[in-house]
Structure formats: structure tokens, C-alpha cells
Amino acid sequence: MPSATPQVVVIGAGPGGYAAAFYAADRGMQVTLVDPEPNPGGVCLYRGCIPSKALLHVAKVVNEASHAKEWGVTFGPPAIDIEKVRSFKNTVVTQLTGGVGQVAKLRKITYIQGYAAFRDPHTLEITRVDAKRTDALAFEHAIIATGSRPATIPGLSIDSPRVMDSTTALDLPDVPKTLLVVGGGYIGLELGSVYAAMGTTVTVVEMTDGLLPGADRDLVNILAKRIESICETVLLQTKVVGMKEAGSGVAVTFEGESGRREQTFDRVLVSIGRRPNSAVPGLDRTKVQVSARGFIEVDPGRRTAEPSIYAIGDVVGEPMLAHKASHEGRVAVDAIAGERAAFEPLAIPAVVFTDPEIAWCGLTEAEARTQKRAVTVARFPWAASGRAITLDRVDGVTKLILHPDTGRILGVGIAGPGAGELISEGVLAIEMGANADDLRQCIHPHPTLSETLMESAEVFFGQATHVYRPKRR
Amino acid sequence: MPTEFKLPELGENIAAGDVVRILVAPGDTVAKDQAVLELETDKATIEVPSSVSGTVKEIRIKQGDKVKVGQVVLTVEEGGASPTVARRKSAKSGEAAADANAGGDKSSSQPAGAPDEGGLSQEASGSKNAERKDPDNVKADAGARGEEDDENAAAQKPKRGEVVDINRGARPPQPSAAHADGGPPAAAQDAPAAPAAPSVRRLARELGVEIGRVPGSGPEGRVSPDDVHAYVRSAMSTTTGGGRAASAGGATLPDFSRWGELERKPMSNIRRKTAEHLTHAWNAIPHVTQHDKADITNLEALRTQYGPQAERAGGKLTITAIALKIAAAALRRFPQFNASLDEASNEIVYKKNVHVGVAADTERGLLVPVIRDVDRKGIFELAAELAKASEKARAGKLSLDEMQGGGFTITNLGGIGGTSFTPIVNWPEVAILGISRGSYEPVWHSANGKGEEDGEFHPRLMLPLSLSYDHRVIDGADAARFLRWVADAFEQPFLLSL
């Protein structure tokens, strides 16, 4: 017999888990949230999005100060107090996680600092961090939100403090003279940028033929120019085939087109992706299915094969992004509440918080090509944006990927400072089924970078105010 | 080895049809959901979509044949080939296909534009491609979608009879419905996105409508909430099927204005649908109504006693909730009351599941939410479910699914009053139980309940019951037995647990 208030247990208090727990509480459910950390936040708040953005902000100021020379303001070289940088970052983390913890309390959510294992489809075994014993916790619905962890290179990673993953790199142990970043994805580029701004000589090695695989090349190229200027070397189509500790550094063997070679770095950051944490103990006592790639399988309502158990976030699949997890959390709670909820976004924004930022959502040009879909791409170069010129940052671009006949906006890509903030308008346009005419008819504030979205819509009609590019007949 | 494609369930009460046209020939490749057959049934002309894909090997039917549900239509040699068959073409289908392409590709479980994982690459950078759908299939889907939209177009301009939404019976339920059965991971949805805002998509989902099937009235086919509502209305009026609109043989009305002022209002869609449905039921079914009374004096005491427990479970221990429980037991005992008459095949269809509709009086008119598997649920669970269903009915949030598939109906007017009435059987069901208001009456008899008369009148709370039934399927004696059994159960509810 169902009790009047269904009980929801959320395992993992990352941005997916705590969003789900809060929403469930707001819907009047009785909620328990389980996580090993003292406060909710997960990887995102403790050792991911948030601390990295704090450090990237520091990096940005360093870079802008040096850029200011060109405008007649010269600062001396930065004196970096690594202790203080670290404590700024830690303050940010403490403030945010503490705040989220407070909000959980206000919502009367039972927060258990501990680990959860399944005893059966309706019972968890909870081991509190501060206790030896294990308590049983019965639940009506569980949401697995256990997230992901940094991937390692099989057979290569060595157990050395000099070889870091994103977590240890964010701890900012020191400012090494030289750093090798293995993997040219967003984590490597973001953290590489931070260390470069602090004065480290950074080398990036990437196995494929370009940085940020998956993103459109025209956007990546803008960033790549910048990355090449702040990095010592960017090695593409190059594999790391060996690593060993060598004195006060790590000797790394590369294998690329030009054969093998070895180089020693003070530190190595391995950022080759993340793996789902789907090995929740006791999951085999339920009907929950895990795919070959380690993701928990769920239906559109985020329910697993076990009717009482839902799963959200990194542990159910790509893209492993906080905002995707939060949205899924709400979907799962709606489904638990008996609604016909479904996770069916048309656009999940992706942002790389480097300088310049890269952001995109919806269909990419590359995807349109592989799917052989006819699209029109309307590009607005930031060289024609008044705001970009005042910022002395004309290297950006805004583009729309459109249906050639209807002008429906299918994808948006932006490279340039603030792209991460600008992309949301693209998400809204895509989700609302807007077309280029809608976008150009919306008055955008002047002078801002957001005008580039409006003007790229005008480009589609061959009528952009600041770019003369008549429509080809 | 060739796979057989059998005629699938096409909708409520459609057991067979005449082949109007065969849309494929041996050697053609067919894709899943591609129309292979045009079938004329009593109610509509239907395009039958294939549930298999491959190369057509043999066609086992010919034009003019009567084909029954379950009969083998054709066989295919499976092998993933892209559909090359020339499909029925029309300007609309071309347009629809173009629209389909306009949508974001939702074919892979990962939305378009999603970034590759984390920092990437050192290992397994190719693995993602395996998950990505190959472009040929995407196109095939887009084509199939065009075909479906074609049906929509047809639905709006019916040619031969009505065109029912074949999606209901012939295809698996929408993915959103799948999880309601606890069904595990739905496969990626093979549909390009419809141009509709997230709130509109949610509305469609809640109403049980596949958003991609809703014709949009906005610029470039954008779907508005009104479009979704309109689609549901049109789907409802075609699915509840059956009769022509209510009419008194087309007789013209006198000029009422000669006797005073008038106001004319169009019938609401629910009103119109109810009229059509009841006209059909009344015309199709030879009705008889059996009346009885149940002594619920003892039950009333129990109801008061256990009321709070039901409320804790989220429901209210109403007479209707108890009637649901009793009806479930009665229907198991008298299976001919949970049946339908298949006139086409001269068969009586007995339903193994006990799904009971409960008439709900709402501001918008009569709605009948169906409570599923009533026999497998406890009274408090039923009470809670009933409360939820009535609330949804009143809020106008019932989906089509939630109003279909009933085998028996209960209508309780006791809350309003009345001593008895003659409910109309909710076709294609064969019986309906009407409940009126219970009242204290002097009963001569057996104060001790054993039939020994003590020679006195006793005040007993008597509940009037009215059972209307389809006399083609149910004999009068059986109806009397059924209703007596129900009355007994009300009088001695512990019988239910025996």
C-alpha cells in the first residue's frame, strides 16, 4: 500500500543528485540524500566546474593585465602567491557547498554523509562516514546519481604524485616549471590554461588530429591559435606510450608521426576523459542493467529496469555535464511523481571555459556533414561587432546552423570571450523551434556581444547591418 | 529465414478488414513502420504499417481478401536494407519529410551537439561512432515520418469512412508510456524533433500524444498548445468511433423563437463525443436494466471505521471505491460481464484483465477514467487510485490511454440523489452498474441476519443498484444473479475475502 508521501533516496549529491533531491522535497516528497562529502556539491562543486572556474578567473585577470600593454597600461609581471590563489579557490568551494548544504537543511532533507549499497530493490545499506556500522534504509524510490571519475590510461598511469588527474591538479600543489597535459579535451585545455597563466611551460599532447574532438573546427581553430601561443608545444596525432619517474620529474615517451621520443616534465596531468561510477555495491541484487560502456541503462523517464530505481547524470551517459544531470534529476522526480516525464532536450549546451571560450549547442556542422543533412550556416565574425572591438577581442565568431528552407535554428556555435554566457540564447531558440527571422526580430541590446546572434540571423537573409554579404541567388 | 508479418491489432474492435490495396511487391524492401497494406474495416480505411523490415519474399493475401488480425500478410527476408519502394506520394508527404529533416536529430540517445566526453581521446575515441546512427537509417526514419504525417493529412480529410489513428493498436506504445509498465530502457527514439517548445512537448506527453504527429499551425509548422488540444480532440472523435452523430433521423427542429428568446451554443467536443458514443451504444445494444437493493448498514459502520486508514493511503473510502472492489470480484466470478461482442466474427471476447471504468462528472462533461487490474488491488489502493483519477478527470488531465480499455463501468449518482436509474451500457462493454442514493427504509425481517423473522420492521440503510446489460450477451437470470451477488457482497463484505 503506498504511503501518502513517497520516500525518495538520492545516492550522490552532485549537481544531478542535489537538484533531484531539492526538487523532490519541493514537490512534497520525503527525501534522503546520501554522499560521502560533508555537504552536497559533488565533483562539480568540490573538484570540477566550480574550482576550475575560480582558477580560470585568476588566469583571465593575469592575461588581461598583460594584454593591457597594448592599450597603454603596463603592469609589472604578476607575483603569484600560490597559497593565496589556492585559498581563494577553497573559499569559493566552501562557500558554495556550505550554501547548498544550508538550502538542503531548509528543505528538511535528511543528509547522510556516507556510502550506500543496495540490499534489495527497496532497501539500502548505509555506512556513515563517521560510524563503523551499517544501517538499513528502506525506500520507495531511489535515484542513482553517483557521477563519474577521471579515466586513467590503462597500463600507463604510474602511481606518482607528479602524475595528476583533474582532482589533484585543482589542488594546485605547486606551480611546476613544466607540465604535460595528456588529452586535448576541455578539462586538459582549461587546466592547462590555468597553469600557463601561473607561469608554467605547458605542453599538450592529443591522440587525434585536433583539439576538442567533437566541436566544430572553425570554433576550435580560434582557440587553437591562442592555445598554441600560451603553450610550449601542442602535439597532435601523438600518443603517450610510456611514463616513468625520473629524478624530480616524469619521463614521458611519445609516439607520433615522426617516431618515438622522450621528454621529461615536472608534472603530468592526465585528462583523457571520465568513466561512470556505475559499480554501486549491491546493484546486482536489483534488475538494474549496466551497458558495456559502464553506463546504467534508463528509459526516457530515467527509470532503470528496476521499477523502484532511477538513475541520472554522468552514470547514465554522455554528455557528462552538470547541467544535463540537473535536468535529468528533475525529469526523474517528475516520473516518480507519476507524470509522463521524459528527458528529451533538443540542445544541451557545451562550454569550454578557456580564453577565448567556445560554446555550442544543438546540431554541429560536423554532425550535419556526417548525417548528410542539408543545412545553411550563417556566420558573423566578431571583427564586425562593436562590442568585440571595444574589448580588443575580434578573434571570435558566432554562427547559426539553420534549416536551408525554413530557417529553423538547429545549432549554434560561438567562439570568443563570454561565449558560455551567450550560448543560452541559442539553447532557447532551438528548444522553442525558433527560426532565423524570430532571432533577428528580437531587439538585442547595443553594444553587446549578444548582437552577434541577431546579426548572424540577419546574415542568413543576406541583410546583416555590419557585414556586407548579400545572399547568393 | 523469412519472417512472417501478421496483421497487427489495429484498434479497439477491429478484428478484420478487406484489402483495398497492397502497397508492396515481392522483392521490395520494406522498412519498419512503412505502410504495406490498405485495409478497409467497418470503421475506417487504414494503412497498415509493417512491424518488420527486410526484403519482401512472398505476399500471402490479395486485393479483396478479408484479412483477420493475426493472419500472415507477407513474409520478408530480414536484412537491413534501406527502403527503396516507391511510396504513396503526395505534395504533403514531401513537405512532411522536409519538415522531418528540419528537426534536430534525436535518433541517437545523445542529443545533437553534445560534446564528446571529458578530456577525451587517448583511448577509444572511435567508440562513439558505434552509437551514432548511420545516416541511411536516419533518412529512412524521416521518410517513415513523412508517411505518418500523411495519415494525419488523411485524418483531416477523410476519404472512405473515418480514418482511425492506427498508432493506437498497431504500434508499441510511445516510449513515455513504456516506463509506466516498469518496462526497462526504451531504445532511442527514432524521430526528428517536432518544432514545439518544451512546454508544448510536455503537454503532449502528458496527454499521451506523440508530438511528432501533431500538425502545427504556426510558422513553419510550429506546434502550439492549441494544436495539441485540437489533435487530441480529433483523435478522440475518431477513436471512440462507431456511430454517426446523434440525430433524430435528420428531422428539422421547429422554430423555437416563436415561443421566446433563444441562445445557441456549439456542443463542446466532449459533449459531441458523448452524444455520438451513447447514440451508438443505445442503438447497438438491446438494453435491459435490473434493479436491486443492498443492505449496507453494516458496511457503513466499517466504512466509517476504516475511513481514516484510506485517507492516510491518499484516498477516500467511498461507496464507489468499495463498489470497484466488489465489481472486480463479481467480474471474475461472472466473466460474461467482462466481455465484448464481436459482431464481425460472431464471437464473444472475454477479457482476462479486470479494468473498470468509473464515470466522473466534470465541469467539461462526462469522463470515464479506467482503473486497471482492479482485481489485483486492495481497497485502499483502489480508493487512492480512484481519488487520483477523479482529480485528474476534473483537472482535464486524463490522457486517452487512461480512458480506454475498460471492461465494465460503474456510475454512481448517489452523491446527488435518486432512487434508481437506467444507465446506458458503455459500448463495447456489455454491462454497467448504476448506484443511487442509499436511504433508511423499514425492512421486515431477519434482524439476526439468518432469515428468522422476528416480526418487526427494522431501519436499514438500503443502497439501490441498477445493472444495465447487453441482452445479446447476458441472459436475464444471469444478470439477476450477478446483481444479487453484488448486493450480497455489499451486505457481507467479508465474503470478498473468501
In whole angstroms, the N-to-C terminal distance of chain B is 52 Å
- N-C termini distance of chain A: 69 Å
Strand portion of chain A: 15-25%
Largest sheet of chain B: 7 strands, mixed
Strand order of the largest sheet of chain A: 5-4-3-2-1-6-17
Major sheet of chain A: 7 strands, mixed
- Provide the low-confidence segments of chain A as ranges: 1-6
Structural shape of chain A: globular
Number of DSSP E strands of chain A: 22
Instruction: Tell me the structural class of chain B.
Output: alpha+beta
Helix content bin of chain B: 25-40%
Helix content of chain A: 25-40%
If you average the pLDDT of chain A, what whole number results?
A: 93
Number of strands of chain B: 19
- Would you identify the regions of chain B where 5 or more consecutive residues have pLDDT less than 50? 80-191, 240-250
* H/I helix tally of chain A: 13
Molecular structure report:
The complex is a heterodimer of chains A (473) and B (498). Chain A is α/β, with parallel strands linked by helices and 473 residues long. Chain A is built from 13 helices and 22 strands. Chain A has helices spanning 15-26, 42-47, 49-67, 82-106, 166-170, 186-198, 217-230, 322-336, 365-370, 386-390, 419-431, 436-441, 451-460, and strands at residues 7-11, 30-35, 110-120, 123-128, 134-138, 141-144, 148-150, 163-164, 178-182, 201-205, 233-235, 239-246, 249-256, 259-265, 267-270, 274-276, 309-311, 350-352, 358-362, 376-381, 397-402, 409-415. Chain A has a 7-stranded mixed beta sheet. A 5-stranded parallel beta sheet of chain A has the order 8-15-9-10-11. A 5-stranded antiparallel beta sheet of chain A has the order 18-19-22-21-20, sandwiched between helices. In chain A, strand 1, helix 1 (15-26) and strand 2 (30-35) form a beta-alpha-beta unit. In chain A, helix 1 (15-26) runs parallel beside helix 8, helix 3 crosses helix 4 and helix 3 packs across helix 6 (186-198). In chain B, helix 10 crosses helix 11 and helix 10 (319-333) crosses helix 12. Chain B has 498 residues and is of the alpha+beta class. Chain B is built from 12 helices and 19 strands. Residues 80-191 and 240-250 of chain B have low confidence and may be disordered. The longest helix of chain B has 22 residues, at 135-156. In chain B, the strands form 5 sheets. In chain B, strands 9, 12, 15, 16, 17, 18 and 19 form a 7-stranded mixed beta sheet that branches. Chains A and B meet through helix 6 and strand 19 of A and helix 1, helix 3, helix 5, helix 6 and helix 11 of B.
